[in-house]
Amino acid sequence: MLARLPGAALRGLAAEAVDVEVDLSRGLPAWNMVGLPDASVREARDRVRSALLNSGFEFPLRHITVNLAPADRRKDGAHFDLPVAIGLLMASGQLRSERARGCLLIGELALDGRLNPVPGVLPLALHAREQGHEVIIAPEENAAEAALAGGIDVRAARTLLDVARHLAGETELPRAEPPDAGPAKSSAPDMADIRGQLQARRALEIAAAGGHHLLMSGPPGVGKSMLARRLPGILPPLTWEQRLEVARIYSVAGDGSRVLTDAMPPFRSPHHSCSDVALIGGGSTPRPGEASRAHHGILFLDELTEFKRQTLEVLRQPLEDGRVVIARAADTLEFPAAFQLVAAMNPCPCGYLGHPARPCRCSPTQIRRYRQRLSGPLLDRFDLHVSVPPVEREELTRMRPGEPSAAVAGRVRRARERQEARLGAGRVNARMSQAEIERFARPDAEGAALLDAAMRRFALSARSYHRILKVARTIADIEGANAVAAAHVAEALQYRAEPPTD
Question: Are residues 271 and 145 both part of a single domain?
């Protein structure tokens, strides 16, 4: 006998339709699975057999053929366990159900018949809605995530037996509801904890207001990481559409609960020993990396010069395009990666170059080699370069709190509103095109003369020229100015300064 059920396979952040066909025929007992399954799909044979027997069903001693069509697309993931098990029950006559034919079944089976959660449920649920499926049955831990898709009946199941009884019409599985979004609250630490560092605080505010990339350089212990970790608290909360987009990324990565109820932008801080695949994504079965997990949020690279140069170089294309393209011989996948890059580094190997009290022990050759770990094209992609000096003792002992995040976030929000009114919803100055720069960020005559002189003196690249204008436009937005004046250009120019060299 033959049973056919609808299924779906993940392809990047999307899903595509798969027909799960189970056929029982005469011959010696055997199990063949075809349709380019990977190891996790092929191993369903052992999981399904034990789950059926431990759930009180019979395992058919026939020649079993499971086909996952279309046959020219690779299938991966243990979420095929449930449709294969139900297909076996239907093909062997142990389950008769018409409800199963319009139902998308998702779930990995434990040996005792329990349903274990699987990654990628949200893209699978969105695909089911688009394909017109009426019902999704998913593991209890994944059901609320699947319900985020909306417009489809999601049922939460705990065991294979519960699913079989529901499909047979004997019982009803509980209907799942999406998680409550709740009010947008920030869980980031407060900027009031920061003492002094007025220039660094100003650069952080400009970076937040315009979505600019920020590089901080300074001796150890001056507060570079402390500043970076407070950036999410002054950024506007994610919209529901952005949260759903980020949730899809985390779902495929295996952490679908990460941003379902959290409106704060993601903050990712990978260790400097991470590989290029871990940073931008990939692998034998391509999955999103840290750059994509920071989509609509912050990618913070602490100890920037300790990262392998090859690892950092792979960020150049995502920084420009806001996406990562993973090309393989069999397929090409695309992951969104519109993140804001924030990095921190020491000025030299010992860390004390330019320190007012502690002498640097590094030779010029050591400093040069240290700086050469970062390529010029990568440094050129930072809109803001700021030197973070040690905090003065008087500032620390005074114990006076700094300006709180709420006050800074208010200015950032107003600047973002001006940008959205000018560029469109969700757009920031850092993502302006060249035509938009010429239209909205053109400086006045005095500002243009100042920028022209800086271009000649410092031999700035065309990319630097445009980034300076973007930063100047953001400074004007923070101040509520319609035109980009010479003062805005002058402040933007000071953030292109290099770290101290002696």
Answer: no
